[in-house]
Structures are given as structure tokens and as C-alpha cells.
Amino acid sequence: MLITISGDDRPGLTARITTILAEHEINVLDIGQAVIHDTLSMGVLVEIPEQKHRSRVQEAVEVFVGDQGLRARFGTISAASYEQWVQAQGRARYIITLLARKITASQLARVTGVVSRHQMNIDSINRLSGRIPLGDVPALSKACVEFSVRGPLADAPAFRRELLKVASALEVDLAFQKDSMYRRNRRLVVFDMDSTLIEAEVIDELAKTAGAGEQVAEITERAMCGELDFSESFRLRVALLRGLTEDVLGDLAKRLVITEGAEHLISTLRALGYKTAILSGGFTFFAQHLQNKLGIDYIYANELDIVDGIVTGEVSGIIVDGARKAQLLCQLADEEGIDLQQVIAVGDGANDLPMLSIAGLGIAYRAKPLVKQSAEQSISTLGLDAILYLLGISDRDQHPALGQL
Fold first, then answer.
1. 355-363 contacts at long range (C-beta below 8 A, 24 or more positions apart)
2. What is the 8-class DSSP label of residue 26?
3. Average pLDDT for 189-201
4. Which of 33, 86, 261, 313 has the largest count of CB atoms under 10 Å?
5. φ and ψ at 317, to 5 degrees?
6. Which residue of the set 173, 194, 204, 352 is catalytic?
7. Does pLDDT of 125 surpass 90?
8. pTM, full prediction
9. Is 40 helix (H, G, I), strand (E, B) or coil?
10. What is the pLDDT of residue 224?
11. Closest CA to 287 of 279, 117, 340
12. Between the CA of residue 187 and those of 174, 362, 391, what are the distances in Å?
């Protein structure tokens, strides 16, 4: 028998209902409960051996809910139907995460429409973000709803394409992941630096000071879009920085703008025991500045040659290009003793694609079109801390002091 109960929530209801079932020595096969705006919705699937016994259980529940001003429904579940439900437990389960500044009915309708067209079932929908005020939303507000869906997915690429189409049309982000044991068990997050952790391409800013801004910006854009080999283009750009003083670098480091949500994300990851790393095609000078400011565990970037306080226009050591980033990611995972599935990689440029493709969770953040199309996940609407939602971490988990969200 499936018992469903709804009505105004108050403390002790679940305890009393389950006590009634216990008094009749009932086996509970499944149970679920949700409270939305102080309204309870509860379902209990129970095993009752005899019809006569069933009547007594139903009567006892009806008396209680009547006294409490609640509503109850009782449905019979056949043995065949129950067995079919049991057999379905091995079906693949997926998580769809909707990210926006504010959730609308249109967004939910479009997403659930895609799920329906692909013959999948929605098991649950949960809000991970905090409570949203009425009226105009704050400029940096965050809204997130997570769908748990289940069923055989005949055409996963087509499903993803439809979600991306919806995301583009509604100017929201939609992440689609398989619900595996690794999702809540990531241990290492590696970041690109320029235009990911900071809102600038450092080499472009330095070039402006050196009077070569337009030349370097053009080369940078072509490299990030995959039109030029990164290492070759990098040496061309660095050569144009010859003559800058170390003081100029220090002044720029102090003026760097941290990307929205980066500080909150990294402090939360650190509190949860994650390791973090910068794998950058930029310069160690600036990566070290961010390491000190944000508490990053590892940094790997390019060493800009400075002699007597003057930039020589050359770099030393191995250039950190796309292939090198992927190699370093594997190296860090090995040093930490974790599987690649436990690594998250975040970046925006074409040279980030190799590491995004081998990480368990690769995220293109406010990325170039080529990168956004190629990466498994993409975030463009919210700040970097939206990554926490992709891990299933709610605002309540991040801010326990806020209480029930």
C-alpha cells in the first residue's frame, strides 16, 4: 500500500505517522518526504500481509491525519508492479543542474520537456541555492535547481544537444552528469589563471604598458581560439614585453580583479579538504600572487626571465601549453593518489581543452565558443562558485549558520 500525506507541516508529524505503522508491525519498503514553504508532502510504501490488517492500518492513519487537518490517500500496489519497480533500480541515473540568476517557470518547462521527450523519469527536484527575495534580484544573485533523472538514454549526444539549445535560448547554464560515486568524491581542482581565476589576460595588460597592446591582443585571441600553436605564439608575445620593469609587474599584480565567486569557491573547497592548483599558460610571478591571496596548493606557470629588474622578453623552462597542462594534471593526481575521475579542471581557452577532456569533470568557464562547444560542462551565467552546485553542494552546506534554506 502506498500512503501519501499532505498538509501544513509541524514538528512531530513524521514521528507520529511512523509510530502508528510501528504499532501495526509494518515493513516500510520506501519512504520520501519534502517540505515546501511549510507544506508537507510525504509518501510511504508499506508491506501489509493481510487485507483485514490493511483496513486497521488505514483507519488508524485516517484518524490521525483527520485530527491534524491533513489529507491522506491510500493506493494499492500490485506485486507485479512492485517487482517491476525493484528491477528498475539498476537503471542509469543522471543529474541535470540548472544555473541562472533567477529560476523561471519557462526554464523548468523547457528542461523537463527535454527529459520527457527522451522518455526519462524525474525522481526528484531540489533547490540548491538559498531563498530568493521577491522583486528585482541582486546583481550577483545565484539560483540553482538540481534534477535527478533516471532511465535508459538511447541517444546521449542528442540529449546534450537539446539541453545546450535550451541553455543558449534562455541564457542559462545546464550541466548534465552521470550520477556516479565520483560526483561527491572529487579531491583536486585545477584552474587556468587568465580569464578564469582573474578577469584579465595578464600578457595583454603588460603589452599595453609596453606599447604593444594591439599586436599581443591579436596573437592572444588567435591562440585562444585555436588558430595558432600556443607555444609559438607565446614566445612571440613575450618578446614584445622586452624592457618592462619588475615594478610594473608588481603594480599589475596588485590591480588584478579576482573572478566572481573565486574566493568563495576556493575557501569552501579548502574547508572540505580539496587540493587546488593553478595550471597556467601565464606567468609564475602572477600565479604566486594568487597563490598567496587565495590559498592555492600548487602552481605551475611560465617563468618570465627578469635580469637586473628588467624583462628580457624570454621565458625559461618548459612552456605550459595545453599538452603540458594535461601532463601536470595527471602528475598531480598521481602525487595525491587519486583517480582522474576525482579531478575537476576549469579553463576558458583552447589550450585548456586537453586537461578539460581528461579530468573527471571538465568545465569551460565563460569560455570561447570553440571551448564551450567542446567541453563536457560549461558555466557562463554565474560566478566560479557555481561549480559547488555541480558537486551537489547546496548553499546550506556551504553556510551552515544560515540554517534551513
1. 355/190, 355/279, 355/322, 355/325, 355/326, 355/328, 355/329, 357/326, 358/326, 358/329, 358/330, 359/190, 359/329, 360/182, 360/186, 361/177, 361/186, 361/390, 363/387, 363/390
2. P
3. 96
4. 261
5. 85, -175
6. 194
7. yes
8. 0.88
9. strand
10. 66
11. 279
12. 23, 14, 11
Query: How far is 70 from 64, CA to CA, in rounded Å?
Result: 8
pLDDT given for residue 373 in this prediction: 85
Residue found by looking up cell 564551450 in the block: 372
| CA end-to-end span of the chain | 32
Strands (E), 54-172: 71-75, 93-100, 121-127, 143-150
Q: Write the single-letter amino acid at 197.
A: L
Is 195:256 a contact under the CB 8 Å cutoff?
no
Q: Which residues on adjacent β-strands are paired with residue 6?
A: 41, 71
Spatial distance between the Cα atoms of 112 and 183, rounded to a whole number of angstroms: 22
Domains and CATH numbers, the chain: 2-86 (3.30.70.260), 91-179 (3.30.70.260), 188-374 (3.40.50.1000)
Q: Which pLDDT does position 148 carry in this prediction?
A: 96
Amino acid at 65: V
Q: Read off the pLDDT band of 401 (50, 70, 90).
A: very low
192 given a catalytic annotation = yes
Buried b (16+ CB within 10 A) or exposed e, 192-220: bbbbbbbebbbbbbbbeebebeeebbebb
Instruction: Find the catalytic residue in 9, 173, 192, 321.
Output: 192
Reported as a single tens digit per residue, the pLDDT across 362-384 is 999 999 888 888 899 999 999 99
Residue 49's pLDDT band (cuts 50, 70, 90): confident
Residue 335 cell numbers, joined: 602525487
Give the model confidence (pLDDT) of 53-89 as tens digits: 889 999 999 999 999 999 999 999 998 999 888 887 7
Q: Name the residue among 314, 289, 288 with its Cα closest to residue 299.
A: 288
Band (135; pLDDT cuts 50, 70, 90): confident
